[in-house]
Amino acid sequence: MRELRQSEADLQGPGPAQGPVEAQLFGAAGEEPASPSSPSASSPSSSSSSSYADPLHLDPLPLKVADLVAFLLLKYRTKEPTSKAEMLHMVLRDHQDHFPVVFRRACECMQLVFGVDVKEVDPRERTYVLVPTLGLTCDAVLSDGQCMPKAGLLVLLLGLIALSGDRCPEEEVWGALGKLGVCAGQEHRIYGEPRELLTEVWVQEGYVEYRPVPHSDPARYEFLWGPRAHAETSEWQVLEHLLWVNSLDPRSLASLWAEGVSDEEEGA
Fold it and tell me: What is the DSSP string of 36-100?
């Protein structure tokens, strides 16, 4: 646990300090996309300087990343597999040489923002399936409607609780999420109304507990893991996921995240 506490400090990026939640969402990755579906298989080498020369900083590739994220979200909703050939034909027809970096960034965005892993199931045919990160089933009822995957936020919340000694004061949760634009009482384009999601929906589903802090006056509240979270994943898996995030360059996913979300918001 001491190493994990140290890793929390390592999440600090340049500029204003970032906690584990901020870094989880705004991290970036190294070079190879070989297996973006798991921390152990997908952990790319940290690259502190290459992002300045990364082709994603040149148009139109950021838009192609956003297009690919929207395409993968559609595949996730409809529970359909996809392939490299299909992605090239549908999204990257005119940018096939840039497929590795676009695919890698899109997979990072899917995992960190939406909580969806892109897993390769046939290396020869380069086919992929899309599954919830860490096996969480909170998005099991998704269809091709308007609802977007929210497991990414759940992983952030569970990680924040784990790094806070198995219980996290409500004010610390909203303080961390507020830096990402996820604010209680304010509708979010991906997560809806966050307070309702965290304190009602996920409480009813058994992912978290939301209870008063004993002997607090005035009353304060705290978040704990719920029984369903313990049944579907483990504290170590969540913390391992955060350790993977620590290996990522914390500078470039912010723009990627914004591009992907705005593209999805427009109904791509």
Answer: TTSHHHH-PPP-SSGGGG-GGGSTTHHHHHHHHHHHHHHHHHTT--EEHHHHHHHT-TT-GGGHH
The pair phi, psi for residue 131, each rounded to 5°, is -135, 160
What is the separation of C-alpha 123 from the centre of its chain, rounded to a whole number of angstroms? 24
pTM above 0.85, yes or no: no
User: Residue 224: exposed, middle, or buried by beta-carbon count in 10 A (0-12, 13-18, 19+)?
Assistant: middle
Strands (E), 140-220: 168-169, 208-212
Looking up tokens 């209680």, which residue turns up? 184
Under 8 Å between Cβ of 225 and 158: yes
CA–CA gap between residue 143 and residue 48 (Å, rounded)? 39
Specify the amino acid at residue 141: V
pLDDT in tens, 10-46: 333 333 333 333 333 333 333 333 344 444 344 333 3
Closest CA to 27 of 5, 11, 43: 11
Q: What is the 3-state secondary structure (H, E, C) of 198-224?
A: HHHHHHHCCCEEEEECCCCCCCCEEEE
